[in-house]
Amino acid sequence: MVLIPVPKPPKSAMNPNRPVSKLLRNQMEHLQRAEFRLPLKQQTNIYINAIKTEGEAADYVRRVTQAIHSAHGVEPKGAAAGPIAVTPKRRATGRDIAAVAEVRPTRKRKTMRTSKAKTKRKTRTKRNR
Amino acid sequence: MSKGLDNLKRIVVLMMENRSFDHMLGALKAQDPRIDGITADLSNPDSTGAPVKVQPLAEFQGQLDPDPDHHFPGVDLQIFGGDTSAGRVPNMQGFVKSYFSQQHDVKHSQKIMYYFTPDKVPVLTTLATEFAVFNRWFASIPGPTICNRAFAHYGTSFGKVGMDLFYINEPYKSIYDRLILANPKRTSKLYYYDQASSTQEIVNLLQHQPELFGTYKQFLSDCKKGQLPDYSFVEPNYSDHDGDNGAEIASDQHPDHHVQAGELFIATIYNAIKANPDLWQSTVLLVVYDEHGGIYDHVVPPACPKDGFVAAANDTGTGRAFEFDRLGIRVPAILISPWIPKGTIVSDRTFEHASIPATVTKHFLGNYDQRSPREKAADTFLDLITLDTMRTDCPDFGV
Q: Which residues of chain A are within 8 Å of residue B293 when distances are taken between CB atoms?
């Protein structure tokens, strides 16, 4: 049996600061689509347009992949949580606000205000001025 | 049926990234003229019209930066040499022109013609000479990663020619769904490297069926325990990142990732299967690349049956619609099993990524009608497992 030696790449080949390729950029965009379908509490709040390096991209990919698995309650074997890296946080956008609006409130209102009640309250406020 | 094929229980596919056949395996022609690789006279004109010949100067890293164009219009230029006329003929003369258009540097653009000598890629070239190498395995689409990988999972890209999201159009199910919904039920798994690399098949599979996924660590463990599913699809690491055990270097070989890291990865997948004797004698491994990555290859992609979809001119970016009637550029593909004769060269048949679900379906499910026209027309490859006596001379890799 022949044993073929396989050379290892030099340590200098590793560069997590390499700029994000189109492939990784697309992967992040696709993951973001999937992320926006997750419950708000499982979203990363990361602003992917600010991600510039492979290391940052990997951090985002890891967080969303974990979130997807977690949302489905399935964790692949050998997928221990990786180290936490600093990734740019996303600013709140109109989309987020819209997403929040879609979520049902967890606390019930004490009473449902009817239009009649609203009118009464307005009148009362005017009177109190 | 050969004893080897009769014995086959599992199929494993490892899909790497963005290297052409001539770039990785073309130099093997000097060792075995049956391999349709590089001859010294192959050339492409540069932007001045001067011929640029192929040269054995490919380096592991730092040479193909920026990433060569491999999107639909770029590949169109590479195949047709810039001819946009109605009666144009593919000539594979536009690779240097295409790469020149990215940096406008004549000298740099010539690097797209460089190829590896076998000593630089010992894993891939050893596997190619020890088992079965395909002279005619083409990417499914003259375009980038996502649409090509879709063909490996679904047998179609549902009309997409780019990196856009695609959604499954019934009735074409993924190969994984076909297997798990079969009666009797079959098993399958996609092994991505780790969660920081994840998968390129997100919106349909990861998002809705994350239970289909495992990690590279799990693949190694499943190999050791003999618990590989009937069908496994393995993805390399797509990024340099910090992992649980320190630095994790990208192993996909996508430019400008280090080619030796990919070699090491291929070797570990092979070794993991071979280290378990039961697994080794009942498993076939296909190593294939998703597309050529903009790098030179001399073989003209053939026409193929239409897929029933049409990509509009706006989507192709070439000013003309595409009916999925031409394959993409040739990529390295090697079929590995101890039941395959050493030095098998597959020359007179054409394969593409739709051959993957076609082969898996044929072997595990038999007749299955709800498949794309391209997949139905795709050739299958398990008939290459022809031996009745298992080989004992297969190589090992020291990793």
A: none
Interchain pair B241, A16: CB under 8 A? yes
Q: Is residue A116 part of a domain?
A: no
Distance (Å, whole) CA B186 – CA B365? 9
A126 occurs within a structural domain: no
pLDDT tens, residue by residue, B260-300: 999 999 999 999 999 999 999 999 999 999 999 999 999 99
Q: How many domains does chain A have?
A: 1
- What is the pTM (predicted TM-score) of this model? 0.91
Nearest to B207 among A13, A23, A37 (CB): A37
> What's the Cα-to-Cα distance from A11 to each of B12, B259, B267, B273, B330, rounded to whole Å?
30, 13, 19, 27, 32
Could you tell me if B258 lies within 8 Å of chain A, comparing CB atoms?
Answer: yes
Contacts A38 to B, Cβ<8 Å: none
Q: Is residue A83 less than 8 Å (CB to CB) from chain B?
A: yes
Rounded to whole angstroms, how far apart are CA atoms B373 and B377? 6
How far, in Å, CA of B232 to CA of B176, rounded?
9
Closest residue, chain A, to B162 (C-alpha): A26
Q: Note whether B67 contacts A: Cβ–Cβ < 8 A.
A: yes
Q: Do B196 and A58 touch (CB under 8 A)?
A: yes
Q: How confident is the model at residue B309 (pLDDT cuts 50, 70, 90)?
A: very high
Residue among B264, B244, B234 nearest B153 (CA): B234
Find the domain containing A49 and state its range: 15-107
The CATH number of B3-39+117-384 is: 3.40.720.10
Rounded-to-integer distance, Cα B322 and Cα B333, Å: 25
